[in-house]
Amino acid sequence: MALDFISMAPAEKAAWLTALGERQYRLQQIEEWVFKQGVLEYAQMSNLPKSLRDSLLAQSVPVLAAKVVAEKADGGTTKLLIELFDTQVVEAVIMRYRHGLTLCVSTQVGCKMGCLFCATAKGGFARNLTRYEMLSQLLLANAHLRAKGERITHLVLMGMGEPLDNYDESLAFIRIAVSSLCSISARRITVSTCGLVPAIERLAAEGLPLTLTVSLNAATDELRQSLMPVAQTYPVNVVLAAMHRYAEATKRRVTIEYVLIKGVNDQERHARDLVAKIRGGNFHVNLIPYNAVPNSALESPLPASVRRFQEILVREGIVVTVRRGLGSRVGGACGQLRGKLQK
Question: Are 41 and 159 in a shared domain?
Answer without folding.
Answer: no
